Amino acid sequence: MALASSVSGRMPQKDVVLTRRQVEGMIAEDRTVIIVDGKVLKVDAWLRYHPGGDKAIMHMVGRDATDEVHALHSVEALQHMLKFQVGKIEGRWRNFLPPIQGGKFRTYSDAIEATGEDTEDEDTSIGSSSPPDSPLFDAIDGSSDFRRRRRSYNSELHEVSSISSLSSIESHTTNDPGKLSTMDARTQHEIDLDLAKYPALDPATQDDIVQKYRLLFGRLRAEGLFQCNYTSYFIELSRYTFLFSMFLILLRYGWYGTSGLCLGILWHQLVFTVHDAGHMGITHNFTIDTVVGIVIADFIGGLSLGWWKRNHNVHHIVTNSPEHDPDIEHMPFFAISHRFFDSLRSTYYDRIMTYDPFAKFMLRYQHYLYYPILLFGRFNLYRLSWEYLIMGQGPKKGPAWWHRWLEIAGQVFFWYWFGYKVVYQSIPTAAGRFAFVMVSHMITAPLHVQITLSHFAMSTADLGINESFPQKMLRTTMDVDCPEWLDFFHGGLQFQAIHHLFPRMPRHNLRRTQKLVQEFCREVDIPYALYGFVDGNKEVIGRLADVGRQAAILAQCQKTLAEKGDYGHH
């Protein structure tokens, strides 16, 4: 795409003001362009080397990624990004739908030929370059009737749950039932609920939310809440040492099941520190935190830190999106939205999540199978880790080139000490080995409950490209209310909504931040979802049961149509 030579000849390229049309043209030519702090960054050269994976960047193409980038990156990383600046923008940026999410773009010359000028016309810009805000329905208007139906929450109600109890697909209503299938009408119903509950999507409202979020971000930095409390990690280390010692002592005396119990609890606790290190929340030094994370995850736990970072960064960008968030893509075993019935394509795994007969059977009973399946969750993490390392899905060059090789060394070391020295050499009988392995792995199931608890019961509706980062994070994430003395058990995962707003904040400071986030939510009128651990589990089971009922109803409808010989779309 050619920029005006007379302009570029008088000033450095990074100072050239680019129009929305010009940025669209760059993306149409397969350039990876994002907007950060009013700067236009073309990061094609960095895409393969990004330590957090390429997918996270791809979900930001054509968008103002300022809040996401600041939340997930260090000051040094932000400075590094300036190397990729190719221009700047003026005024408020209107987001495009990224290509990975289905956005369509025209080259600059095609746009000029179609319109006759480089305009910022709303209709031609949105209509020709990206599909409507919602992937299924008309563009969402923040001032629609749904906004007028929004409930008003007083200060007390702000602290309690904000999740709607969705009815079955039999009882919803739709504005135009003749034009929507049953499943599409259900989707529209869920969008309507969120539009009625959360702030309007008009620019003024969302800009106000963003401004207050950035002020809160600055306040937290000024109060030192992004600085790690190393005394807390000394306490953690003491706990780890005790558990590891008990594992060895009990193994030495032949108490294999109990020894496996201590090792499993140790693994459960260590994951929380890996999570901190993966977000650079311990020392805030890229190399040191990476080494800490790999030593714990790979050498001690047999899991890949690189796989987790690639997966987790996408999760932080597109939280609870059925097509894009790998943390809720568990077909054929679980589905938290009826949209999985459409055999969606996962942009993360790059495959179809087929709604086949096995999935149809499993989903009908998923609320009964939830806890039993999670008992085997760690085995699936091994598979995902090996797939990531063997297939070389991480960066092969750049600052993270060495991660894969250190992780592979860690995997070899883990299976040597755990698989050979402990399981094979230290336990004499097959029954003892089986008991040790199963107990040590199944006892980590609470971790998988904690991970899914914060999102499975929350909204999966897509409110489009105009929703701000802080609103989306709070709409798709819940916190778990627990006493302070129990914080060690949850390891910071009880503050997931706060963590999604400030991912690099050390977990030992999240409780101190909670009241400030609650004040922010009241100020911007965003419901803050807070449940007790038991009530949160009830919400998750309720969501799984609801989707299971929808699956059963759909199956019955399809069976009835097949019996009548009606092959039309239901």
TrEMBL record:
It is an enzyme of class 1 (oxidoreductase). It holds the Pfam family FA_desaturase. Residues 115-141 are annotated as: Disordered. Pathway: Sphingolipid metabolism; Lipid metabolism; sphingolipid metabolism. Residues 15-90 form the Cytochrome b5 heme-binding domain. It is a multi-pass membrane protein. Its main location: membrane. It is found in: Membrane. GO terms for cellular component: membrane. Keywords: Heme, Iron, Lipid metabolism, Membrane, Metal-binding, Oxidoreductase, Sphingolipid metabolism, Transmembrane, Transmembrane helix. GO terms for biological process: sphingolipid metabolic process. Residues 115-124 have a biased composition (Acidic residues). It comes from the Eukaryota. The chain crosses the membrane at residues 242-266, 286-308, 368-389, 401-418, 430-449. SUPFAM superfamilies: Cytochrome b5-like heme/steroid binding domain (SSF55856). Belongs to the fatty acid desaturase type 1 family. This is Delta 8-(E)-sphingolipid desaturase. It comes from Letharia lupina.
